[in-house]
Amino acid sequence: MLEIKQLTKTYTTNTIFKALDLTVADGEVLSIVGPSGIGKTTLIKILAGLETADTGDVTLNGEKLAVDGTRSDAKVGLIFQDFNLFPNYKVLDNIMLAPINVNKVAPDVAKAKATELLETLGMADKGDLYPYQLSGGQKQRVAIARALAMDPQILAYDEPTSGLDEASTKQVAEVVKTLKAQGVTQMIITHDQPFAEMVSDRVFDFATEVKR
After folding, report:
1. pLDDT tens digit string along 115-128?
2. Cβ 128 vs Cβ 92: under 8 Å
3. Pairing between strand 63-65 and 55-60?
4. Is 203 exposed, middle or buried (0-12, 13-18, 19+ CB in 10 A)?
5. What is the tens place of the pLDDT at every residue in 6-53?
6. What is the DSSP string of the chain?
7. Fewer CB within 10 Å: C terminus or N terminus of the chain?
8. Residue 8 · residue 54 · CB < 8 Å
């Protein structure tokens, strides 16, 4: 379970959000909706250790996570809006890179897991392709596989359907549902209300629920 208590973030004199309380149950799919610029992406970056908070506590499965930017673990896997795949690496190598270099996983073990993830996400035949050879929906699935390869306790998506066509959006929705069936806890930042309603157990409206 993810528990966020009294989390506050400011930039100079601008308060992004104040005293935020939010709980996400194990295996839950929570979508966070709201207009641009109100702090949705900032929140998941704090959870992933890429941004700092001013005050507040975050607990994941009973373990308190640092919110001051000192954390270097991968308990929260962040899937970026623009995928951030390495264009000079094949799909399989993109997924294997962090487990090998960060978690010091043996290459054969990392390859076996990457291959299994691609099979799970319907990408078994794409491992030897480069990112430029993939559609937007396929790139999104590779980004999800790459995050999962680090064994996160929760997945956080930043606008996963941005720029995708209807068919690719449906593919991403099926991946979210597949991971939910496997018990993966997921947080989704999105402007896509129909997508949020399609995949989520609960929708959190950042504009109305969060103090500023």
Report:
1. 999 999 989 999 99
2. yes
3. antiparallel
4. middle
5. 999 998 888 889 999 999 999 999 999 988 888 999 999 999 888 889
6. -EEEEEEEEEETTEEEEEEEEEEE-TT-EEEEE--TTSSHHHHHHHHTTSS--SEEEEEETTEEEP-SS-----SEEEE-TT----TTS-HHHHHHHHHHHTS---HHHHHHHHHHHHHHTT-TT-TTS-GGGS-HHHHHHHHHHHHHTT--SEEEEESTTTT--HHHHHHHHHHHHHHHHTT-EEEEE-S-HHHHHHH-SEEEEHHHHSB-
7. C
8. yes
Separation CA 121–CA 60 (nearest Å):
26
- Report d(CA 75, CA 48) in Å as an integer: 7
Q: Which one, of 149, 170, 148, 146, lies nearest residue 160 by Cα?
A: 170
pTM, two decimal places: 0.89
Question: Where do we find the tokens 């929140």?
Answer: 43
What strand order describes the sheet that includes 63-65? Answer: 14-24, 2-11, 55-60, 63-65
Residue 42, token pair as written in the block: 């900032």
Q: How many CB atoms lie within 10 A of CB 122?
A: 14
Q: Which residues of 36-61 are buried (b: 16+ CB within 10 A; e: fewer)?
A: eebbbbbbbbbbbbebebeebebebe
